[in-house]
Amino acid sequence: MGKIIKRQRVMVPLTLKELATKAGVSSSHLGRIERGERFPSARTLVKIAKPLGFEENELFALAGYLSRQIPAIAEGSPEYSGGQLDPFVARMLAQESLEVQRAVVGILAVLKSIARDMSAK
Amino acid sequence: MGKIIKRQRVMVPLTLKELATKAGVSSSHLGRIERGERFPSARTLVKIAKPLGFEENELFALAGYLSRQIPAIAEGSPEYSGGQLDPFVARMLAQESLEVQRAVVGILAVLKSIARDMSAK
DNA sequence: ATTGACATTTGCCATTTGGCTAATTATAAT
DNA sequence: ATTATAATTAGCCAAATGGCAAATGTCAAT
User: Fold this and answer.
1) CATH class held by domain A1-70
2) Domain ranges in chain A?
3) Is the pLDDT of residue A105 over 60?
4) Which one, of A43, A51, A59, A44, lies nearest residue A92 by Cα?
5) For the segment B2-55, what is each residue's pLDDT rounded down to a tens digit?
6) What fold is seen in the domain B1-71?
7) Is the CB of A67 less than 7 A from some atom of nucleic acid strand D?
């Protein structure tokens, strides 16, 4: 799931090696980061952000995205945020237009329903 | 300069040890990061960010990367919400676990990067 | 100046990162 | 299917990170 790029030219026209040369990071290392076997340093993160088209203020999102396989979006973990919205998340979303904000919760709903289907076997 | 904290209680009422416990990072390590003897991993950076009140970009700047500039709330979509988070959206997301909340932001960032690629050619 | 109470830095070292090269695996053509 | 070619993964290991405890530095009162 949590892949930066999919493979070949399926999702994004970027292979590991292409990204590797653009970012100045070895492709083997990128591969391990992709599948969660390694956790990039901030330096590496910054290097790969630009070729991927991430802005500076999205680095944190990228970090969060990379350093955890998207965790059970389905029946999420029982330890909830207690109805609290994470400040970082709030800040990020607040920069988006209202349309995008709404789309985000819509997408989330879709993902949850898909996840439910999948776990229903 | 860009010191996280100044020392004792001179600048900000936060000592290395206080930040250390809040962030879950050793104070000695934080100290070395501050004076540039160590370069934090993305994970460490993320840990430090929240206790400091999400000055993410500042942190990356402190760590020696990125241009040191205030977030510049703009950039991106044409019509902004003026930094406002829609109450409905906030309420929906607040019910999700922290991990999901962050994953949502991560996914959004990825979508934006893909969109950029597509429009770029 | 000395003491006491903290805050910060240093030394040491177990883990982890990240590059290089060699497998392995996928893709495209024959 | 077979082969050629490009992409991803695995093995190895030097270099860097990050924790802990000891050493050092700072400030406030005596």
Assistant:
1) mainly alpha
2) 1-70, 74-121
3) yes
4) A59
5) 344 444 433 445 677 878 888 899 999 988 988 888 988 888 887 887 776 555
6) 434 Repressor (Amino-terminal Domain) (1.10.260)
7) no
Which residues face A41 on adjacent strands? B41
Which residue blocks in chain A are alpha helix, DSSP H? 16-23, 27-34, 42-49, 59-66, 87-94, 98-119
**Planar angle of CA B57, B60, B66, nearest 5 degrees:** 85
| Interatomic CA distance for residues B20 and B15, integer angstroms | 8
Most A-contacting residue of B102, B112, B117, B121 (CB-CB within 10 A), to test interface: B102
Inspect the interface and report whether the beta carbons of B89 and A91 lie closer than 8 Å: no
Question: At residue A32, does pLDDT exceed 60?
Answer: yes
B 55-84: CB under 8 A from A? 56-57, 60, 63, 65-67, 71-73, 75-81, 83-84
For residue A81, which of B1, B95, B119 has the smallest C-alpha distance?
B95
